[in-house]
# Entry
Amino acid sequence: MNFNPIASHQSKTSYSNTVNLNSKPIPKRTFSINETVMNNPKLQESDSTNIWNELSNKYNVRKATFHEIKEISNELYNAGEISLKDVAVLTFDYDKATNYLKRNAPVTIDNSFDMYETSSNNKGERDWILEFNARAQKDLKYGNLIGYNNNIKILHILQQLDNE
# Structure
C-alpha cells in the first residue's frame, strides 16, 4: 500500500515550488473619506435630508401606485440613499410576475390569484408599508430569513418616508 500523497506519475506536489514574488509598496493613503464627501455633492448630509423631505411631501407611501414607488426608489437611488438591491426589491413587478405565472405555469392557476399580500384600490393605490410588512411576516413564517431581512429594510425606508 502506498500512502504517499504524491501520485506515482507526479514528480512533486504543486505546492512544493518556491516562488519569489516581488510586491509593490502600498501607498500610505489611497483616499480620504472627508475629501470624497466634500468633493461629491451627492454624498453631503444636507442633500440627504432634503431628498427624504421632498419625496415625503410629493408622495404618500400609504396610498401610492406602483409607478410612484418606482419613481421614489429611482430618486432615492440617484441621491445615493438606497442601494441597487433596495431598488430591485422595491420595484419587483408583482403584477407582471402574477400574469406570467397564470400564462406559463404547468397547472391551471385561478384568475383570482395575486402575488400581493394586500389589496389595492380601484386606482391601483396601495399602502406599501402594510404590503412590505405583510411580505416580511410571510417570509419569517416560512423561514425565508433573507427575504425577511430585505423586506424589513424596505419597510424602514418606507416608514422613513412616511415619518418625514
Q: What stands out?
A: The mean pLDDT is 85.
